[in-house]
Amino acid sequence: MTPVCPFVKASRPDDGSSRKPGDCPIKHGAEHEGGGRAKKEYSGESATVSPKCPFGYDSQTFKLGPLSCMICQALLFDCSKCVPCSHVYCKVCISRFKDCPLCGADVEKIEADTDLQSVVDRFIDGHARIKRSHVDMDKEEEVGENKKVIYEDVSLERGAFLVQQAMRAFRAQNVESAKSRLGLCAEDIRGRIETVGNTSELCSQLGAVLGMLGDCCRAVGDAGSAVTYFEESVEFLSKLSVADLEITHTLSVSLNKIGDLKYYDGDLEAARSYYIRSLNVRRDAIERHPSVPSQTLDVAVSLAKVADADRSVGNEDAAHDRFHEAIKILESLTLKPEEAGLEQRRLSVLEFLKNQLTENG
Question: Which of 122, 130, 261, 262 has a CA 20 to 30 Å removed from the CA of 85?
């Protein structure tokens, strides 16, 4: 199941047509002709220039802009300058190196570059906020041969832009940078909710972003904050239609993540409660969409989690029954040849379940 895309109308420049499940949840937009160059469509005496960020952070091409860290490929965060070569990176990124990744010079020390960081912060604050209607003739500018060009809005919407930068930073283990960008995104969405109310689109976006913040906190061992973000994510996702498979999948995953954190903290009853909530969400989903194999696999995984929690609290009979139910579900699941990835997952989960029963007689 592909994770819920919080900004389905947005595009991202670093996504190709072969995006794998689990990658950054921003969908790729339609490609423009000319290898990403601004495409002009002439109609009479006017031309339209596709949206373009002057620093290169647009949705049709991928390049590292002048405000990017060359290590994590995200916008600079806690900007730091190498001495003596003066190349600039995120502090967390360059701290892992003894030599400058760009020029190879020894890094004698690292100095904060507050002036450049201020420029980055101002750029983020203003990115994708300028709105210009292409039907407003006052905004047109004269171009060659007396033709008029109409500048559209920046196509990489602010929310998608911030999530894109956050995911690049997260993949490079620059978690504080990711948290900062996601925090700005969440703040923007909350502001819109205060203005227009809890629409499905905004609740979906905020739920997804809060889940990402939870992942960031979990990555650095901050279980308390992770639980808080996941619980808030569940709150917003629970307001949405249960008919949406992506929403229900993300909701169930957030519930399982809370359960995992409670489990590792030793609160087994609380963990079991969250696992059961996730299982119920997935059972409801499979009733509505019985022909979706990934839903069946999700139910089996949830049964395994609940069974493990049952066993941990001493309810061996209940655990035994749930393990058997999960095995029965997976053994009856028939997959098509093109669903090789799901088949591999099915076999892996099935092996785990049988081992659990064997180890406990």
Answer: 122
